[in-house]
Design goal:
TIM Barrel, single chain, binds 3-methyl-2-oxobutanoic acid, alpha/beta, 2 domains
Amino acid sequence: MSVSGETRRLSVPQFMARKGGEPLVCLTAYTAPVARLLDPHVDMLLVGDSLGMVIYGYETTLPVTLAQMIAHGDAVVRHTRKALVVVDLPFGSYQASPSVAFEAASAVMAKTGCTAVKLEGGVEMAETVAFLSQRGIPVMGHVGLTPQAVNALGGYRSRGKDDAESAKIRMDTRAIVDAGAFAVVVEAVREPIARELTTETPVPIIGIGGSPACDGQILVTDDLLGLFGTFTPRFVKRYAELGESIGRAAAEYAADVRARRFPGPEHVFGTKAKRV
Ligand code: KIV
């Protein structure tokens, strides 16, 4: 709590201090109402570029723009008080050079008020991670399955199937951590690799399709709520079936409207009926 009695947001040093301790609970959020609901329960909210697929219905995350990330980041930051908010840098906004990345990351931080940014990549992004970190921009890394590289990777299959892939994931993680990343998301990698990375790495490793041994876990909220698509990746546990609930509610509403059961007397003005 702060002097004014307001809840303080988890800071980057506090997040890092949880290495090897109580698991860090992380989820994605893209909108104000969902962010508000999740905030009391999580340590970190990621405004992920997965919003391109989840909210905008794109096939991949590649079309997502900086303007979209800023609009959603702003909504999430303004409607949360407790969670550390991290905003993804979208494809094309940071890969060209460290200074291009600085322009994008500083715009995201200044316009949303988020605490940190996340970017995908390993060895090839180390110089950029160092450039941003040394200039006051906390960077969360993302290795393993990196969805912005879906075309180069040839799909969304899990990573680390052979020695070469495992060695690459290790090298990538080491490179960005040495460059200053304060935490790393490790996505869809073989369990022993995620476990070993967690032991070997001095900063929190956040798994998504990683290992229960990771320092924290993240999922796409719409996946765990049963709101996104028909395919559920192996690493998702569904905690609710809101998609089915929404379908049922819409069908009931449609039936009521067609049968003139809605609106009832309690829903219209100038009648004596009370709302139930
Ligand atoms: O964009 C996103 O939601 C992510 C998570 C899957 C980690 O990067």
